[in-house]
Amino acid sequence: MGDRSASVQGVGLGFRLGLAEAMLEHQTPGWDFIELCPENYVGVGGRRARLLDAARERWPVVCHGLCGDLAGQAPLDHALLGAVRELLGRVGARWYSDHLCMTHIDGAEIHELVALPFNEAAARRCAARVVQVREILGVPMAIENVSAYGQMPGGEMDEVSFVRAVAEEADCQILLDVINVYVNAINFGFDPRAYIDALPLERVVQIHMAGHLREAEDLLLDTHAMPIVDPVYDLFDYTLKRLPRAVPALLERDGNFPPLAELEGEMARMARIMEASAHDRP
Ligand SMILES: [Fe+2]
Questions:
Q1: Residues whose CB is under 5 A from ligand 1 (ion)?
Q2: From the CA of 274, how far away is ligand 1's center (Å)?
Q3: Residue 1, pLDDT above cutoff 60
Q4: Domain 4-275: homologous superfamily in CATH
Q5: pTM of the prediction?
């Protein structure tokens, strides 16, 4: 099987458990690669093992962690990371991404992407954990910017400065989640384009796109359960025109699953924007 993720490019679709069988049954899929979350596949047999084997035979795979706790305080979960390392080898992953946030509090897994106080000490601590995880996994790490709904006390810089500080301190890559930038821009009242401009874009290796829920005029929820809206496609276009090179982009759909044809329509629009942006790349 080897290293099919070396050819990860174009538009991908999250290989979520609620979509997996339909994706595998699809004869002419409108995506170029898939992304899966190792936590869903390590240490399990049966249906999930069969899905994983079938998927890696069919598409290039990138792996995206959910529970890395990159910003947490607890010791890293070495048993989990060892199993993830084995899985990365099986699917030929060339990098590993996880969220720049806490996923555990007081030792309990909370399955939430809790935001951080943005300060130098937190940035150094996160960077050290990213380096540690990278050394265990043996592949480059990409940190993902997360959505948030409140400001943590103790912050002394803005979010994008924090992401930049961690990425530069750890010398790691970035998974740029465009919907998370958009959601946070509305929730906290900043300019999403200025955020993109302030990122070290040369470190971006992959993009996420998704839909959200408008809870109120000034509160968006990052649900991944709705279609992508026009302003998010516009921000995607703005981002691509500033990236120094083409990177793969993934549609994240994690709930309220529509027929695949609907998701393929969203991916086709993403692909058109990617193709057009190639002419404007710096
Ligand atoms: Fe994401």
A1: 177, 208
A2: 18
A3: no
A4: Divalent-metal-dependent TIM barrel enzymes (3.20.20.150)
A5: 0.94
